[in-house]
């Protein structure tokens, strides 16, 4: 059994702990700068024991599961604190800033930039789920910058918890994730903000809210501590996406103002194709 250390025991870090323990291939140790989170993680059995400073050199793999704005500094710190045979990887949804921070580090090849595409709108150790990663994909960026040994260990770990690994550049990752994840969260937060500003009687909101509203605004319950850094660190790509989104929104407003229903129908009909696109991707990835 290999020893795995986890820095950060919230939803993602805690779910790694549970999934790795269940695989039967890893002993899991963890820590969190929030003492209450660490205590809760131990109570819930997310890890086998606390990860202490003197254990770092004997850790086979180290997972950095912290907000994206902390990752560059922690990556450098733990590349220097761990031994030559410890492979380090992160779980962040922004890659370019981290890649640039460690690009010239002498131990760069021990680091694997990793992003498990999994999560929920909940946060903290109590939100951890052992099945969170099962059937999902893990993106590894700039794989040529990591050693073959590091890549082998990190890909094997993710396969052990039921994930498939895919590869791309950091720049490509940050561009695409802005469309398929970050825009969704911005839209949900702004929708929630707009509804709360207009409708002061919250009872009426929930009285009339159907499943469509609930599913659309669900992401607005996501942790501000997690998402504020994500928006800031990937702001250049997110701004490009929002500008394209605003262009389409302005065009839709103009059609409504002119009551051009036939054109609205045509747009909606065209956008319906996204369902077929998603179904095709799911079949490719072996999802039902």
Written overview of the protein:
- It is a single chain.
- The chain has 288 residues and is α/β, with parallel strands linked by helices.
- The protein folds into two domains: 2-168, NAD(P)-binding Rossmann-like Domain (Rossmann fold, 3-Layer(aba) Sandwich), CATH 3.40.50.720; 173-257, 6-phosphogluconate dehydrogenase C-terminal fold (Orthogonal Bundle).
- It contains twelve helices and eight strands.
- It has an eight-stranded mixed β-sheet, with helices on both faces.
- Strand 4 (61-64), helix 3 and strand 5 (87-90) form a beta-alpha-beta unit.
- Helix 3 (71-81) runs parallel beside helix 4 (96-102).
Question: What general form does the structure show?
Answer: globular
Helix coverage percent of residues?
40-55%
CATH homology group of the largest domain: NAD(P)-binding Rossmann-like Domain
Mean pLDDT: 93
Strand content: 5-15%
Topology pattern, helix = H, strand = E: EHEHEEHEHEEHEHHHHHHH
Report the sheet with the most strands, covering strand number, pairing sense and barrel closure.
8 strands, mixed
What count of structural domains? 2
Which fold does the CATH topology of the largest domain refer to?
Rossmann fold
CATH class of the largest domain reads: Alpha Beta
End-to-end Cα distance, whole Å, is 33 Å
Total of helices: 12
Read across the widest sheet, the strand sequence of neighbours is 3-2-1-4-5-6-7-8
- CATH architecture descriptor name of the largest domain: 3-Layer(aba) Sandwich
Question: Strand pairing plus helix content: what structural class?
Answer: alpha/beta
Number of DSSP-assigned strands: 8
Whole-angstrom Rg: 21 Å
Uncertain regions spanning at least 5 consecutive residues:
none
């Amino acid at each position: 059994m290999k020893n795995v250390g986890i820095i950060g025991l919230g939803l993602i870090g805690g779910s790694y702990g549970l999934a790795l323990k269940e695989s039967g291939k890893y002993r899991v140790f963890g820590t969190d700068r929030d003492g209450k989170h660490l205590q809760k993680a131990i109570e819930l059995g997310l890890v086998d024991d606390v990860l202490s400073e003197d254990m770092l050199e004997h850790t086979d793999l180290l997972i950095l599961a912290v907000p994206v704005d902390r990752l560059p500094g922690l990556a450098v710190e733990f590349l220097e604190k761990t031994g030559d045979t410890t492979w380090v990887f992160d779980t962040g949804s922004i890659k370019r800033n981290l890649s640039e921070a460690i690009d010239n580090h002498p131990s760069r090849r021990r680091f694997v930039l990793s992003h498990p595409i999994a999560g929920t709108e909940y946060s903290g150790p109590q939100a951890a789920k052992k099945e969170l990663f099962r059937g999902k994909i893990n993106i590894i960026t700039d794989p040529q910058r990591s050693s073959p040994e590091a890549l082998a260990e990190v890909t094997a770990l993710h396969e052990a918890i039921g994930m498939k690994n895919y590869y791309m550049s950091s720049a490509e990752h940050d561009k695409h994730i802005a469309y398929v994840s970050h825009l969704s969260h911005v839209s949900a937060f702004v929708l929630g903000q707009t509804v709360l500003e207009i409708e002061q009687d919250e009872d009426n909101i929930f009285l009339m809210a159907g499943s469509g509203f609930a599913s659309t605004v669900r992401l607005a319950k996501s942790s501000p501590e997690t998402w504020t850094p994500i928006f800031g660190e990937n702001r250049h790509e997110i701004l490009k996406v929002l500008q394209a989104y605003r262009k389409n929104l302005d065009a839709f407003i103009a059609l409504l103002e002119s009551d051009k229903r036939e054109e609205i129908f045509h747009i909606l009909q065209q956008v319906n194709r996204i369902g077929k696109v998603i179904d095709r991707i799911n079949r490719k990835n072996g999802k039902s």
